[in-house]
Amino acid sequence: MEAAAHAASQTDAEPRTYLNHETSLWEWLTTKDHKKIGIMYLISLAVVFLVAGLLAMAVRLELMSPDFSIMSASQYNQTFTMHGIMMVFLFIVPSIPAILGNFVLPLQIGAKDVAFPRLNLASWYVYMAGGVLTVTALLVGELSTGWTFYTPYSSQQGTAVIFMTGAIFVSGFASIFTGLNFIVTIHKMRAPGMTWNRLPLFVWGLYATSIVQVLATPVVGITMLLLILEQTLQIGIFDPALGGDPILFQHFFWFYSHPAVYIMILPAFGILSELIATFSRQRIFGYRAIALSSVAIAMLGFLVWGHHMFVSGQSAISSIVFSLITYLIGIPSGIKIFNWIATMYKGSVWLQTPMLYALSFLFLFTIGGLTGIMVGVLGVDVHLHDTYFVVGHFHYVMMGGSVIALLGGMHYWWPKITGRMYNETLGKIAAGLVFVGFNVTFFTQLVLGSQGMPRRYYEYVDRFAELHMISTIGSFILASGLFLVLGYALHSLFYGKKAPQNPWAAATLEWTNVAAIPDPHNFTSTPLVTRGPYDFHKADEVFGGSGDGQARGDGAGSDASRLTPPEAAPSAPKEDASA
Amino acid sequence: MNDSGTFWLPEAASTVAAEVDGLFYFVYWASAIIFVGVVAAMIYLAYKYRRRDPNDRPEPVEESRLLEISWIVVPTILVLLVFTWGFQTFVTLQTAPPNAYEIQGQAYSYGWNFEYPEGAQTTDELYLPADRPVQIRLSSREGDVLHSFFLPQFRVKQDVLPNRYTSVWFEATEPGTYELFCTEYCGVGHSQMLGEVNVLPADEFDEWVAEAGINEDDLSLVELGELQYQRNGCQGCHSLDGSAMAGPTFQGLYESERAFADAGSVEADDNYLRESIIEPDAKVVEGYGSGIMPSFAHLSERDVTALVEFIKEQE
């Protein structure tokens, strides 16, 4: 935050931007500007990602070889538990909506802000309260339940569990606030002419996500509350020692935690549509199919939770029904992949860093999806359940999907957020390291799992040693890529080239109608939307160009200066703007 | 165990394994073909339509209904095929033949007890007859947590719960030694909750099961104590050779001076040992955590006495 403010102070001579306007710490902490709240979330989440990532490195280091050890079994259990909890509940679930959704959504629909700016600020504070409770949980005791909190093990673990479940309960409200805000914003704050069929697909992704956030998050809140009540009042709900049922807990837990997977992946789908369309300069293939399949996934996502429980002891009939619905939800995801690839057909594909992440996503998420089909097969899941195959599968979806899309999105919108370009060469190198490191780390885990290596093992039998070693080496490559991203991002804040208004020649409003660094109120005049978000093909209208001779592009390619971005959408008539 | 597995799957040693493996490889190859197709198309298009000029103005592409319908219909048919096949295998896995040989299995933190109809009892070792369907009825000890019974070479897995029975069945095909893993996270000893599966030819198994039946009443207290030491998983945390594990070693424990975390100390006499078995957190020796060892109050009076006598023997 300070860094960003510092960068902005050097541009005093230039027009008012959201970064040089109201720059004191107090003004940041009380801001109702969706862009600043997005940045506050970005900083908080970056810290969580760093800590949770270092925990993952500790886990990989411990597992490097059967004889090598850096910690005790109890410490190992706490390490993977905190890695999982922080990554899932405190990082990936809020990440894309809270950072990029907050920053980009109002800009993309031509709005001044979200519908409830105070609620938006409250969501950040609630999230931070969840963070404080998490730290408290670590201080009051050991937390070694795994991120799934399965009873009765979690019932026997004491006060740390109560604080941690309290943290998840509280930070859930941050999700609900954001979701509620986005739904109302998308319904009520669109600029004139921004019809549902002209919504950028990132907005559609956020819309579907918000529905899931608002409907599913209360369930995890209730579950966590029941866990706390059971432990403090000794009422039997989930703990068999008190007369409760552990399988009931699993139903409750997955009823939220499966839809949570869609909270993580739907906004990533949205980012991907933006990247593929812009860097292929082609109308997205099957716009309507992509938009509606997101909503279909959001709805069906509530009906498949039981596929986590094929060997739990739930009835065979339930398992069979859940398996069938699981396949139905796989199909819309497949359709999206095909549509994105078809979008490149007869396009003009520009392999800048964000596009490299988009192509990585297609590669990795396809593996994530296909391994999902594998674990959805009833007879095969019995063998694969709770092995490293599942660990590999969900990392391909959550990291190979959500986190890679987030990285792509961060690179794509970085110029708009900071007003600076990053180093394109380093960006491409880092994208390569992340891609290679990720596959070396997690593909080996797929093999480990199908060979029978169980999850959450501190020690393992010798026949798994070789693959564990390769996986650990991969994790070092992956980490080096991510640290490189951190390095050049920080460098860019201070020394990066000033970004033009539309370095990628994108056609959505945040690029065509918003200054290089956005105005505190986003638009100088309310835009009137006259075409779809990816209508690059309407060449005469879109590529008219302002011809102001200003150098554009990021300067990495020598021909980037000749790039002419789409022209701005016209202003709406004054009476519309005041309405 | 010989290493005759494939790149993806370990050796197959049960009748159902062949079926599961066939299905695994069908999904695998179908996935591999789709994946290669997707990646090839991606690379081809990204190269063929690479940007040649920053001001390229590509022609719009008309969406093709036929294409879109085909990539909805073909995957749907494929997944329904896979679902049906997986469903049939699952039904096979769930339906034990009526003539299956029944073994009782009990999981605890951290180990496995098995009891055979003829009276034999084993800990962390499962003996099985080859070529004969076996059903194992599983439960977790009262007050214990969830575990999961996983035989990778047999392709079967079943969660084990403290408040109900679950069961798993299979038919071993090859005599040999195989792995038993716990796959439901259960605490510090989770990765040590391993067992050994010994598949014997039918006649050898019959011999073994006839000899292995032990009458506990015939054992001396120390012998019974050793049996209980293994059966209750004490060896997971308490060594007999002086080496440090999650709990204090039993070697030289009796009549030694015990210093506690709260600064008191006491000599380890019979009553101290008894208390530590029944109420482990009453006195915690310095350097060890409380809340780690479960109570063994459910043991019979003779079993507790036998354990105390056994510990006294470890000089």
Summarize the structure.
Chain A: Residues 540-579 are annotated as: Disordered. Chain A has 579 residues and is mostly helical. In chain A, 65% of the residues lie in helices and 0% in strands.
Which helices and strands, and how do they pair?
The complex is a heterodimer of chains A (579) and B (315).
Chain A: H1 2-9, H2 25-29, H3 34-62, H4 73-109, H5 117-140, H6 159-188, H7 201-233, H8 246-280, H9 287-300, H10 316-343, H11 353-376, H12 378-384, H13 388-418, H14 424-450, H15 465-495, H16 509-512, H17 539-542, H18 574-578
Chain B: H1 15-48, H2 65-94, E1 101-108, E2 111-115, E3 121-123, E4 125-129, E5 133-140, E6 147-151, E7 156-160, E8 166-171, E9 176-182, E10 195-200, H3 202-212, H4 221-231, E11 257-259, E12 265-267, H5 270-278, H6 301-313
Parallel strand pairs in B: 1-5, 4-10
Antiparallel strand pairs in B: 1-2, 2-3, 5-8, 6-7, 6-9, 9-10, 11-12
Region (Disordered) (chain A): 540-579
Catalytic activity (chain A): 4 Fe(II)-[cytochrome c] + O2 + 8 H(+)(in) = 4 Fe(III)-[cytochrome c] + 2 H2O + 4 H(+)(out)
Subcellular location (chain A): Cell membrane; Membrane
Integer-rounded radius of gyration of chain B = 28 Å
Content-based structural category of chain A: mainly alpha
Strand content of chain A: under 5%
| Major sheet of chain A | none
Q: From the helix content, strand content and strand pairing of chain B, which structural class follows?
A: alpha+beta
Q: What is the average of the pLDDT values of chain B?
A: 89
Number of DSSP E strands of chain B: 12
Q: Topology as H/E string of chain A?
A: HHHHHHHHHHHHHHHHHH
Number of helices of chain B: 6
Over all CA atoms, what is the radius of gyration of chain A?
24 Å
Distance between the termini of chain B: 37 Å
Oligomeric state of shown chains: heterodimer
Count of runs of 4 or more consecutive helical residues of chain A: 18
Supply the CATH class of the largest domain in chain B.
Answer: Mainly Beta
CATH superfamily (homologous) name of the largest domain in chain B: Cupredoxins -  blue copper proteins
Largest interface: A-B, 93 and 91 residues
Strand content of chain B: 15-25%
Helix fraction of chain A? 55-70%
